[in-house]
Design goal:
Layout (H helix, E strand, L loop, with lengths): L2 H21 L2 H16 L3 H5 L8 H7 L5 H12 L13 E5 L7 E5 L4 H19 L8 E4 L7 E3 L2 E4 L1 H5 L5 H4 L2 E2 L2 H4 L4 H12 L4 E5 L2 H15 L3 H4 L5 E5 L4 H11 L4 E8 L2 E5 L8 E3 L5 E7 L22 E7 L6 E12 L2 E8 L13 H12 L5 E10 L8 E10 L4 H15 L1 H8 L7 E4 L4 H8 L17 H7 L4
Parallel strand pairs: 1-5, 3-6, 3-7, 7-8, 8-9, 17-18
Antiparallel strand pairs: 1-2, 4-5, 9-10, 10-11, 11-15, 12-13, 13-14, 14-15, 16-17
Helix pairs in contact: 1-6, 10-11, 11-13, 14-15, 15-16
Length: 497
């Protein structure tokens, strides 16, 4: 074992002990974070406007600080973007992470001197927890690739901005720089298809041991490698044994990945966002990701079923339950306050607190009151393909409210790598799995309000073509699993097979 691997194991043991210290005291840890956030921000414009000086506990905070999304917080953000100081957080942001907005163009999420280190340390600690649990540290000697956005940054009023993954690229530790790929020049390529081809050129003859990125885009990279060499990725990279991912559920991609690689590899799931790094998988044997309670973020949770009710209850970490679908609300040392990030989560463990991402508050189907979420459709697809030779590249689901004949239904648009021999039977399997999970959906089928799910096959590359048409091919972009309208569905329907 190399000296570098030995050092990694020692450091991993130290980080594991530190993590256990706060994970075993979750309520006290969050109370400490809460007090620190309020104290540091009470002289900012936001702190003065909301009387932070009079906030002593969570109840005071609820009375003074309503839940907001980006559009509602935007007047404060715009002042910070304009160069004003002490608006949402003390001083000025170090960076703005630029993301796609919903109603008014780009969003600018502040990153501060206090928040930025947690984005870097959390990704590092996820790997260290893996090393500590498995004892596998040899991969630190191989090459590591991180499929990410361009590190080229623009500037507004003296503060640089760009995609979060591009900003993070500026903070890669020196001890990883020699192992890290692709090159800076390749990472700066904006066009995703050109970039992936360049990454293949640079890595095809390298000893890749760790590969990281959103599953759908890593899959594209793997397909191009196989197309170029005719070899499975696992044969090409004999020491590739760890895949790190975030952004979407890996399960719908797992069988295709293992087919492209030619064998199973370990994986680590992350839950990062421009607004904060919230959780990472700390165990290969336990379900869910460890919620990071000591990373400058104070969490509140609102039951998704109650979110749009007036004065919906805001739960803290000691009040949550297993298996409930919560909207996650955050207050951070980047100056986001009672901020709705739009993600829904469920707790899989309360000791320690582990979560899974169940979907997006805006990504659901409830055209008939069924309240279907991403976790349910992903699980239904997993059940329908388990034990079969069916392989799926990508999928999304939308309601068909006004069919030409018969009852309305949920339409599944699926891009197959290996399709089923009987589409009708496959659709029926999906429908059975959905009915088991969602009682509202089951009632609608039983009551003849909906007919069972229908599957529409789309041609190879249809999803990539759609993303390209929206200017969202590659980077951190991903296709929504669910839509409550037909915008995506109608675009994909033109490519039905």
């Amino acid at each position: 074992m190399s000296l570098k691997a030995v050092a990694a194991k020692i450091f991993a043991s130290y980080i594991s002990r530190k993590t256990n210290a706060w994970a075993n005291n979750p309520v006290q840890t969050q109370q400490k974070v809460f007090r620190n956030l309020i104290e540091q921000a009470k002289f900012t414009q936001f702190g003065k406007d909301h009387e932070f000086g009079n906030i002593a506990n969570h109840s005071d905070f609820i009375r003074r600080v309503p839940v907001r999304d980006y559009e509602e917080l935007k007047p404060y953000v715009e002042k910070a973007v304009a160069g004003e100081e002490n608006i949402l957080w003390k001083g000025r942001p170090l960076y703005f992470a630029k993301t796609s907005g919903t109603t008014s163009g780009a969003k600018y999420i502040p990153l501060t001197k206090e928040s930025m280190p947690f984005h870097i340390e959390s990704a590092r600690n996820a790997i260290l927890h893996y090393i500590h649990e498995t004892g596998n540290a040899d991969f630190v000697n191989g090459k590591m690739i991180f499929l990410q956005g361009s590190p080229v940054l623009d500037e507004k009023n003296g503060v640089k901005f760009g995609r979060l993954s591009g900003i993070v690229a500026h903070f890669v530790p020196a001890y990883l720089q020699k192992n890290r790929m692709p090159s800076w020049e390749t990472n700066c390529i904006e066009d995703w298809e050109t970039k992936v081809n360049a990454i293949v050129d640079e890595t095809v003859n390298q000893d890749m041991s760790v590969i990281s990125g959103i599953p759908s885009w890593v899959q594209m990279y793997f397909e191009k490698l196989k197309e170029r060499t005719g070899k499975p990725v696992g044969e090409l990279f004999k020491n590739f044994n760890l895949f790190i991912y975030g952004g979407v559920n890996y399960e719908p991609y797992r069988s295709k990945f293992e087919s492209l690689v030619g064998r199973k590899v370990d994986s680590i799931e992350l839950f990062p966002a421009s607004e904060g790094f919230f959780a990472y998988q700390d165990s290969q044997s336990e379900k869910g990701m460890l919620l990071l309670l000591n990373s400058g973020i104070f969490y509140e949770f609102i039951k998704a079923a109650e979110f749009y009710e007036e004065n919906a209850r805001r739960y803290t970490i000691g009040e949550v339950e297993l298996g409930v679908n919560y909207v996650m609300i955050i207050s951070t040392n980047a100056g986001l306050w009672a901020y709705n990030i739009g993600d829904t989560i469920q707790f899989t463990s309360l000791n320690p607190y582990r979560v899974i991402v169940s979907g997006r508050l805006q990504h659901y189907i409830s055209a008939f009151g069924e309240h279907v979420i991403a976790k349910e459709v992903e699980e239904a697809l997993r059940e329908a393909t388990t034990g079969t030779d069916i392989s799926i590249s990508e999928f999304t689901v939308a309601p068909q409210i006004t069919p030409s004949g018969g009852l309305p239904y949920h339409e599944w648009f699926v891009e197959f790598d290996a399709p089923p021999t009987d589409i009708g039977k496959f659709a029926a399997s999906i429908d059975v799995a959905m009915r088991k999970q969602n009682l509202y959906y089951d009632d609608l089928i039983s009551g003849k309000v909906l007919r069972p799910a229908m599957v529409t096959c789309v041609s190879a590359g249809a999803f990539n073509e759609y993303m390209k048409s929206q200017g969202k091919l590659g980077g951190q972009n991903k296709i929504p699993r669910l839509s409550n309208d037909r915008k995506i569905a109608d675009a994909l329907a033109a490519n039905r097979r």
